[in-house]
Amino acid sequence: MELFDVYPLFDVEPVAAQGCTITDKNGVEYLDLYGGHAVISVGHSHPYYVQMLSEQLKKMGFYSNSVQNPLQKELALKLGSLSGYGDYSLFLCNSGAEANENALKLASFHTERARIVSFEKSFHGRTSAAVAVTDNPAIISPLNDTVDRIILPLNDLDALENELMEGDVAAVIVEGIQGIGGCRVPEPSFLEEAGKLCRRYGTVLILDEIQSGYGRSGKFFAHQYANVKPDLITIAKGMGNGFPVGGVLIRPEFEARKGMLGTTFGGNYLACAASIAVLDIMQSEQLIENAEIVGNYLMTKLAGFEKIKEVRGRGLMIGLEFNEPIAEIRKKLLFEEKIFTGVTGTHTIRLLPPLTVTREQVDRFLSALKKVLG
Ligand SMILES: Cc1ncc(COP(=O)(O)O)c(C=O)c1O
């Protein structure tokens, strides 16, 4: 059987990974500034993370979801404390799209409405409701029309209020920083006003922090640069450092009912062990602070490159928009300089390194980029 061929791939086969370094089958080492789509938060194969997962695996194997799983509570407590959302509750699932599906469903239960507002260039996942509120022409299907949604320009408060005034909007969903949209940052004042408008019109505000959360922005959540408290916050990616896990943080006003949400694998023992290890490492190695310091340093240096039209993002979530197509630049960075980067569209490079990345490593990238750009 062949694989269903949907991924554009470079001819590099990784066989080992450690910290911010990936080694291919020929023994060539690469600096990883992409972290598998912002997934690697505490670095590849962190010894504490590997130990926590191995010990858990030996104890219970792959035993799945259980309401009696004490690790779920430990995870919720640690996550509440590190994120500043200790008064919220946590629903665990397996991926980002699933987290958004659950958040949209919760919003519809809570408001008894069905209409959703999302924003241009947003990405919320590839399952049916998540993809319907995503603004990406490559993945539109007739199924999108089964969800009653409208896509507005980001940061346009008048357009938002016009929709909310109708009184039928269940949820507004917005990314803390747009990921696939190229690291566009919503204005803090927009998020703050959106929060107030949602309250006024009885609409649920969902912050999708699946890519921008977990310390990447230099705060636990990117929306914490604004004075806003969303009703629901969705998480995944960096949460498990590669182990598939996702979740929804839920404001106390939302009342749980038995059977309201559910999943077979969500919150399984291994996912919890991975997620707890991530939080422990983030705290003991002060990775949120590192993301802020190294990220700010990198962004400041990049702002001095003439060929870069715009540097966007925060912390270690950085988009570099060029005047020219970037395919060749990325190829040279990978094959000549041995550095992995990400991409959005044809003109934007995305940097999403592990939060452990050092100043020396980003200096190596800066010299390589200078060389490649001539
Ligand atoms: C902001 C955002 N939301 C949701 C998703 C979907 O997550 P997953 O691929 O885990 O379903 C992604 C994935 O890239 C994302 O960047």
UniProtKB/TrEMBL annotation:
A Pfam family this chain is assigned to: Aminotran_3
InterPro entries associated with the record: Aminotrans_3 (IPR005814), Aminotrans_3_PPA_site (IPR049704), Class-III_PLP-dep_AT (IPR050103), PyrdxlP-dep_Trfase (IPR015424), PyrdxlP-dep_Trfase_major (IPR015421), PyrdxlP-dep_Trfase_small (IPR015422)
Gene Ontology MF term list: identical protein binding; pyridoxal phosphate binding; transaminase activity
Coiled-coil regions listed in the entry: none
Cofactor(s) named in the record: pyridoxal 5'-phosphate
Transferase found in the keyword field: yes
Domain of life: Bacteria
Keywords: Aminotransferase, Pyridoxal phosphate, Transferase
CDD domains xref list: OAT_like (cd00610)
Entry's family note: Belongs to the class-III pyridoxal-phosphate-dependent aminotransferase family.
Protein name as catalogued: Acetylornithine aminotransferase
Organism: Prolixibacter bellariivorans
